[in-house]
Amino acid sequence: MSLTLFRILALIALPLLAACAPQPPVAVAPEVVPGYEAVEDGGFLIPAVHPKQFIGSPPRAEVAYNGGENPGTIVVDPFARKLYLVMENGRAMRYSIAVGRVGLGFRGSAVISRKEKWPSWTPTANMIRTMPEFYAEYAGGLPGGLENPLGSRALYLYRGGRDTYFRIHGTIDNRSIGRATSAGCIRLFNQDIIDLFERVPNGTVVKARTQEESERLEGKFMEDEWGLLIPYDASRIEEIAAKRAINEQKLQEQIAREAAAASAQINAQGAGTLPIGALPPQG
Question: Are 90 and 111 in contact (CB under 8 A)?
Answer without folding.
Answer: no
